[in-house]
Task: inverse folding
């Protein structure tokens, strides 16, 4: 399998208590990093541990015997990755500087914890991050190259269409938005039309009564007076008799008081003040009596007026009961009905304006989709022969590469229908094109989808060919290849190694290999090895020196016995690739040199 790390480079990897690995930390270099080792030495274990970092399922079997917890941690360089920054912001993850540290811990208690720069992260979040961070390439269904959904992105990167695709996606989103607004308006218009008669009836019902704010309270107060008019008139008349008109009234007695005080104040001037108060009291009683008389005379005993007010109160009460319980609710309902009935007449204008806007957006989308489709087909014509040439260099002598295009037809009722050329096609997220890579690896065979290519070695070489051609536009600076040498040897392996060496000029590569021809191309060489101490076996990765690099390449050529000729062949193989002389380490007499 292979891992592809997008827009970043792997700086280091730390593993503790995972499977056979007790503990080690390794730093990777720029260029081509080679990993070799005996079968079972731990190369696949390293990849399995790495898989935990991208959200793979954690199991207790992953924990080393005798340990309580397995830990895997990697540091990535994320400089120049704005999309990854957006992911961090959306998930409220702190990420200062250019380093991203991803950590996963698996406990024997059955728990698993993930961290991004010390912030807790669920396995699901790590999986989501992998869309920005890691693309897992494995054999068959696990290899993203076999999923056609990725092919159009690869073609667009080769063609340099990223900005144009983003422009299209923005317009397409606007097209969907406008179409949604029109559908919502039409649905609302239909509902209003269905309910028009009801709305009109309700409006006319309220308008016929014509209630005013606070009118119900005013009528209620007036009814209390009219319904008790006779009692009020009799009572006020009696009070008026007591105050002024009746024999021995208050006014009469206050008059006598005033006269007596007037005489007495002539004798004693200190009674002048009580005299003034008596005069004021008499004036107040007189005015009160006059007011009550006027009130009594104003009271209506008209039964028709009483009936009229009772009738209006009943009408207002019916409206209140029907439209919310209060007069304020009735008046709000009336305003709402006015808006609905008036808005209905404006729908035609609103929908017409939006449909014009939709037509303009569709025209722009159609224009860009047509340009994208044309550019893709032109670029496919350039990509196909280039891939075929690289495939031949990689040992697929009769390889034919083909970019297959398809589009979905649409009808005029489809909101995503675009006019491209003379056809009505349905827009997808990238335009109107669906793209899939086809290949044939043998003479006389017609190209078939990559998913039908059975050979893992061929799949790896096809991916290597694509990466070689797309190197300048590819946004994936780190590639980790496993089983790239499956099914190849000799001259083809040497070609694959050279292709990887060239690819490493633009990318950081990590390649796990069993072939000397590929190992010889490495800028840095790591050995997966096992050791046994006190009845316990442990695996690790160890960086080899220049001389050890020669010996390991020689061992891949001839086996454990490092003869002078094997070492000389290894040096020659490495010098042919690097063009530099190599250090020679004094060979030990042991057959197995480490």
Result:
């Amino acid at each position: 399998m292979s891992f592809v790390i997008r827009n970043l480079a792997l700086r280091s990897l730390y593993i503790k208590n995972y499977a056979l690995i007790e503990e080690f930390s390794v730093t990777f270099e720029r260029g081509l990093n080679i990993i070799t080792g005996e079968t079972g030495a731990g190369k696949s274990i390293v990849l399995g541990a790495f898989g935990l970092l991208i959200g793979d399922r954690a199991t207790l079997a992953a924990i080393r015997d005798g340990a309580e917890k397995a830990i895997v941690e990697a540091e990535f360089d994320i400089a120049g990755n704005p999309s990854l920054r957006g992911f961090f912001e959306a998930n409220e993850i702190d990420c200062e500087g250019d380093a991203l540290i991803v950590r996963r811990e698996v406990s024997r208690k059955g728990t698993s914890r993930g961290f991004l720069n010390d912030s807790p992260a669920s396995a699901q979040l790590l999986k989501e991050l992998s869309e920005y961070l890691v693309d897992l390439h494995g054999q068959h269904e696990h290899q993203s190259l076999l999923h056609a959904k990725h092919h159009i992105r690869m073609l667009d990167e080769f063609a340099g269409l990223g900005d144009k695709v983003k422009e299209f996606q923005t317009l397409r989103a606007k097209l969907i938005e406008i179409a949604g607004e029109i559908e919502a308006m039409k649905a609302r218009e239909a509902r209003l039309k269905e309910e028009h008669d009801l709305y009109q009836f309700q409006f006319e019902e309220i308008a016929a009564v014509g209630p005013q704010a606070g009118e119900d309270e005013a009528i209620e107060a007036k009814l209390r007076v009219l319904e008790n008019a006779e009692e009020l008139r009799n009572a006020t008349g009696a009070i008026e008799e007591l105050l002024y008109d009746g024999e021995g009234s208050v006014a009469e007695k206050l008059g006598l008081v005033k006269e007596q005080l007037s005489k007495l104040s002539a004798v004693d001037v200190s009674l002048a003040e009580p005299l003034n108060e008596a005069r004021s009291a008499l004036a107040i009683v007189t005015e009160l009596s006059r007011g009550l008389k006027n009130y009594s005379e104003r009271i209506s005993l008209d039964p028709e007026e009483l009936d009229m007010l009772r009738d209006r109160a009943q009408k207002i009460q019916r409206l209140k009961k029907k439209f919310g319980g209060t007069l304020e609710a009735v008046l709000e309902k009336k305003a709402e009905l006015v808006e609905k009935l008036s808005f209905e007449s404006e729908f035609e204008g609103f929908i017409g304006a939006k449909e014009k806007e939709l037509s303009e957006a569709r025209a722009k989308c159609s224009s860009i989709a047509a340009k994208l489709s044309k550019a893709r087909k032109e670029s496919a014509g350039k990509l196909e022969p280039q891939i075929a040439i690289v495939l031949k260099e990689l040992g697929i002598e009769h390889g034919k590469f083909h970019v297959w295009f398809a589009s979905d037809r649409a009808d005029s009722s489809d909101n995503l229908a675009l006019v491209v050329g003379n056809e009505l096609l349905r827009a997808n997220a990238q335009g109107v094109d669906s793209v899939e890579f086809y290949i044939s690896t043998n003479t006389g065979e017609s190209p078939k989808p990559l998913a039908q290519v059975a050979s893992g070695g061929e799949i790896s070489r096809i991916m290597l060919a694509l990466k070689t051609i797309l190197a300048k536009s590819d946004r994936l600076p780190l590639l980790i290849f496993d089983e790239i040498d499956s099914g190849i040897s000799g001259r083809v392996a040497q070609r694959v190694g050279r292709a990887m060496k060239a690819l490493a000029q633009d990318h950081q590569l990590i390649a796990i290999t069993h072939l000397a021809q590929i190992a010889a191309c490495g800028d840095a060489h790591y050995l997966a090895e096992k050791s046994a101490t006190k009845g316990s076996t442990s695996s690790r990765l160890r960086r080899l020196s220049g001389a050890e690099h020669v010996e390991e390449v020689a061992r891949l050529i001839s086996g454990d016995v490092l003869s002078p000729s094997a070492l000389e062949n290894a040096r020659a193989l490495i010098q042919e690739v690097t063009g530099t002389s190599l250090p020679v380490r004094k060979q030990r007499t042991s057959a197995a040199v480490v």
